[in-house]
Structures are given as C-alpha cells and as structure tokens.
Amino acid sequence: MALPGVTNGKAPARPSLEDAAGFADAYRTHSKAILIFLARRTYDPETALDLTAETFARAYAGRRRFRGTSHDELAAWLFAIARHVLARFLRRGVAERRALTRLGIEVPSLEPDDLARVVELAGLADLRLAAAQGFSMLSAKEREAVRLRVVEELPYGDVARRLDISVPTARARVSRGLRALAGVLGHRPLTQETSA
Questions:
Q1: Is the Cβ–Cβ distance between 38 and 87 less than 8 Å?
Q2: What does 20-89 look like in DSSP terms, one character per residue?
Q3: Which residues of the chain are in CATH 1.10.10.10 domains?
Q4: pLDDT recorded at residue 187
Q5: Rounded Cα–Cα distance for residues 169 and 58 (Å)
C-alpha cells in the first residue's frame, strides 16, 4: 500500500474540488501533511490514517461548500476539517465512521513497513519518549488524575470519586498535569508540519 500524498502531483493553478481529478489533486497535495498532523496528535499511525480518511471523506461530502481561490485557502479548509475530525475523535474516543460508510470508502490497512514510515515521518518515536518522560515527571496525584481522565476517558465526576476528591480538585489536577505535559512536548502550531 502506498502512503497517501507521497506522490506529489501537479496541482491546478486554481484549486477545484468539483470534479474527480481536482479532488484527487487535492488529496495528493495535502493528504501527507494531514496524516502527519494527525499522527503527531494521536501518537498512533492507524488512528491517524483512519482520521485522514475521514477528513477527506468529509471534504468530499462538503466539497461544494469550498469557496477558496488559492491552494493556501484549500489547505486551510482541509486542516480545519482535520482539526474538527480530531476534536470529535478525542471527545468521543473513536472516529466517526458514518461518512466513510455512507460514501463506501474502505480504509486501507497499514503494513508494518507503512506503519514504520508514518512513525518516522511524524517523529512519533521522539514524541512518545518525551510524553513518557513528561508523564513520569508529574506528581503521583496529577499522574493518576490524568490517567483516569485521558487514558480511561472517565468523566470528571468519576475521576473525583475514584480519587476521593472534589470535582474542582480533579479538574485542577488534570489541568495542571496536561499543562505540564504540553510544556514538555512543546506546543506545535495547528498547521502543516511536513519537513520530510
């Protein structure tokens, strides 16, 4: 399986998503950057591939709403969709599959070499190491609060009950822990991040 966006086709002078060729050009031009963007935020190549497919499925479904006239506007529009897809995934814990199913898009599975390539492109090994180191630097109380809220995806009320603390205290611990992790990982702008 070829990774999306690795073949860089020539994009038309003015982006058009109205026909299959225009949409295919948009995919070839932007899918690699979106895949890397999502992989760096999920730390999981397969999830990133699923979310990339969903991003382009939503873009295809809404292609008539794109009013931009430049490739920068097209990239911004696609990244806005990717951010929305990511936010929804993070809120619900799973990627929405309805658009893919409705459009009949089958998500390709990654071979081990492809997984390794996504990990390399997105620099996930370094990010995972930094996240693990940052997590170990949290206080035990913050670490447990973050684990319950983020890893186990428990609501704050359940986190508070498990830790025998108030909900505001649970929120504060999670917030402090996530701020500390963000400081260790460094904030990356929500834009294209390709150097490979």
A1: no
A2: HHHHHHHHHHHHHHHHHHHHHHHS-HHHHHHHHHHHHHHHHHTGGG----SHHHHHHHHHHHHHHHHHHH
A3: 123-185
A4: 47
A5: 38
Q: What is the pLDDT of residues 41-95, one digit of tens each?
A: 887 788 888 899 999 888 888 888 888 888 889 999 999 999 999 888 876 654 4
Question: Right CATH number for 123-185 from 1.10.238.10, 1.10.10.10, 3.30.1360.70, 3.30.1360.120?
Answer: 1.10.10.10
Q: Could you read off the pLDDT of 146-161 as tens digits, one per residue?
A: 888 887 778 899 999 9
Of the candidates 34, 76, 40, the residue with the CA atom closest to the CA atom of residue 57: 34
Count of residues in the chain:
196
